[in-house]
Amino acid sequence: MSKTIIISNRLPVQLQISDGGMSAIPSVGGLATGMKSVHDGKNSLWIGWSGLTEEDTPESLVPAIDKALAEQGCAQVSLTKEEVDGFYFGFSNRTIWPLFHYFLEYTEFELSFWETYRQVNQKFADAILAQSGPDDIIWVHDYQLMLVPQMVKEKNPGATIGFFLHIPFPSYEIFRTMPWREEVLQGLLGSDLIGFHTYDYERHFLSSVRRLLSLDVHFNDIYLDNRIIKVDSFPMGIDYKRFHEAAVANDQLKGKERSDLQKKLDDHKASAPGTKLILSIDRLDYSKGIAKRINAFEYFLRKYPEYKEKMRLIILAVPSRSNVPQYMLLKKEIDELVGRINGELSTVNWTPIWYFYRSMPFENLIDLYTSCDIAWLTPLRDGMNLVAKEYIATRTDKTGVLILSEMAGSAYEMNEALLINPNNFEQQADTLKRAFEMPKEEQMARNMFLQKRLERYNVEVWAQEFMSVLKNQKSEEQEQVVT
Ligand code: ADP
Ligand code: F6P
């Protein structure tokens, strides 16, 4: 029986070694949270990195690790510390991530990063080749593994390979600055289907293929030797039911059953009627525009001082890529900003910003989503942004206002949200005011449409569509080669 091989840098769980034992924590990020609901562990195998380096893994624990992962339908590609430094912290997150998010000033073109990236991509490709059978479908994910499709296709030309990019694909003018641009495109073209979140990313990719490789491109088909590679957009959805049902269950919890965080949020509401909570949740990443958001909040409070003591901003930032210098600097910048603004604007009854720098369990994310009146998400560039979708899914009574950056992929599907330009403080101040004042009926009317769309186009439908286009593409390609 054929199975689906999911391959991504991170596995859905991250392993940690402490006191000589091993523990597993769920991975954070759109890819992991989204694909988790597609991976059932029976008809799929998920190959990826466990988060541990070979140096950090006592040999005696390896069999237990492999067994624990196998029980969850996972297999690991083990990486040395040097490989993690060059491949993950290096080329993936100091070259491609900033470049593809239009942060040219942060982008480092470093040959040794590239070489390690190639070497580690080969490791992942070898793991696929070792674990897959002839009828299996291989689904490669994201910018850390862009060379894998070609590496697999070279050794197994009959393989069915799909690739999905979870981050933006930048415009040709940006992409062309990368020294290894042709190799990256050729790596991707080992796939039979290449998927993006939005039509714009798809167009940018096709334009780069046309201009840098001079290949024949008809609509969204690329002709290469005797193959046809399809390119399409598939906006990723969320596990709507899981978020919505968790929120319904949360509404029903009484007294002691409620979490400490939820009790604190309940107390806040009871003690300050008429005030509103604004929520932002992101990985601590410069692409998410967290520092600008905090500055814009200060701007709002100074422009409309009558909202002091009426609005509080809750920032939940999950630690991310903390070995990369830009992320360390950002952490420091945000710590200082929050400290300064709270120091300058707090009153005895009110602190403008509550800042949490940590990962939170699913239950607490639900507490925050359901308790906050406004979600304010301001990425400067974001492939999709699933947090926007998760917030809407948890609004059981359909109230709540979503303020969303037009630079997020999700903005294309979420027109009923209040869309903003994260660089425009004036517009954001006015939008926060509008969100505060928005009548409940208007909130409900907007969210009704959003919820319907999210429920219908959920992550399962997203994955099924991708897989069905991939299978069709493969059989059409085979027919054309035969005739
Ligand atoms: P990205 O993939 O760039 O991290 P997304 O918004 O698409 O951005 O996905 C982020 C995912 O990580 C969401 O599913 C969200 O629920 C989860 N997440 C974000 N912050 C936290 C946190 N502090 N604790 C736990 N999960 C988080
Ligand atoms: O969605 C983009 C992405 O890089 C995913 O590939 C990844 O799961 C997530 O963000 C979190 O990043 P990281 O794996 O570097 O912690």
Structural features, described:
The protein contains 17 helices and 17 strands. It has 483 residues and is an alpha/beta fold. The strands form 3 sheets. The chain has a 9-stranded mixed sheet. Helix 11 (290-303) packs parallel to helix 12 and helix 11 crosses helix 15 (425-437). It is globular. Residues 28-30, 33, 281, 283, 316, 318, 359-360, 365, 384-387, 390 line the site of adenosine-5'-diphosphate (ADP).
List the topology elements.
Elements: E1 4-10, E2 13-18, E3 21-26, H1 30-36, E4 44-49, H2 62-71, E5 74-76, H3 81-100, H4 111-131, E6 137-141, H5 148-155, E7 160-164, H6 172-175, H7 181-188, E8 193-196, H8 199-213, E9 216-218, E10 221-224, E11 227-233, H9 240-252, H10 260-271, E12 276-283, H11 290-303, E13 311-318, H12 325-345, E14 353-357, H13 362-371, E15 374-377, H14 386-393, E16 401-405, E17 418-420, H15 425-437, H16 440-456, H17 459-482
Parallel strand pairs: 1-4, 1-6, 4-5, 6-7, 7-8, 8-11, 12-13, 12-15, 13-14, 15-16, 16-17
Antiparallel strand pairs: 2-3, 9-10, 10-11
The structure holds adenosine-5'-diphosphate and 6-O-phosphono-beta-D-fructofuranose (F6P).
Number of beta-strand segments = 17
Low-confidence stretches: none
Mean pLDDT: 95
State the strand order across the main sheet: 5-4-1-6-7-8-11-10-9
Bound molecules: adenosine-5'-diphosphate, 6-O-phosphono-beta-D-fructofuranose
Major sheet, described briefly? 9 strands, mixed
> Fraction of residues in helices?
40-55%
Kindly provide the radius of gyration, computed on alpha-carbon positions and rounded to a whole number of angstroms: 23 Å
Shape descriptor reads globular
Distance between the termini: 28 Å
> How does the helix and strand content classify structurally?
alpha/beta
Percent of residues in beta strands?
15-25%
Report the total helices: 17
State the assembly state of the protein chains: single chain
